[in-house]
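User: My advisor, Dr. K., asked me to get a structural model of this assembly before our group meeting. I'm new to this, so sorry if the format is off. These are the inputs:
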Amino acid sequence: DQQVKQNSPSLSVQEGRISILNCDYTNSMFDYFLWYKKYPAEGPTFLISISSIKDKNEDGRFTVFLNKSAKHLSLHIVPSQPGDSAVYFCAGNTGTASKLTFGTGTRLQVTL
Amino acid sequence: DTAVSQTPKYLVTQMGNDKSIKCEQNLGHDTMYWYKQDSKKFLKIMFSYNNKELIINETVPNRFSPKSPDKAHLNLHINSLELGDSAVYFCASSGQGASKNIQYFGAGTRLSVL
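Assistant: The format is fine. Below is the predicted structure of the whole assembly, which you can bring to the meeting.
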């Protein structure tokens, strides 16, 4: 039972353009969502998060949008840079349990 | 100065052996976790400890035993290793209050069971 799904295993975007990574979830108990970025042979690095009571959170080039009715969130990266090339994981958290449930990741490649 | 550090980074061993992976965090966090990333790249929680007390155990086989000597350390001991235990194991930690939802990960330990 995969509660968090990232249906696009990979995405290629040109440098300077917008990257949009999508994530769907099924667990209505999630009250916090996070995006992590992962380079090869490294651990996931926290990128940005959003509480379930909000619909948007922005941090520099990164914006996360949450649509609770559709159980969907997305990460926008504008403008995309070659250093953004990595695997991006979406995760949901139920506050009381404080355990992250991850999606399977989307590999983003930003080309020159 | 690494916030969450795991040792070793790579571990190659034979089936049936017992091995340990160590994890230390210097962030002053109260909660620590072990995650397993399998061959399909699916990252799944195994255990969670809060102030040396087990709070999450996600139906992990008894061969896996976490040990927390203090709140800055959470080690993972695995008995009678099996081929299916081959994976990357990540340690993580989180704090209190407003940042309690954000977990910080170590670089991972790649375990290969031959």
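One thing worth pointing out at the meeting: Residues 18 and 79 of chain B are 4 Å apart (CA to CA).

User: Perfect, thanks a lot.
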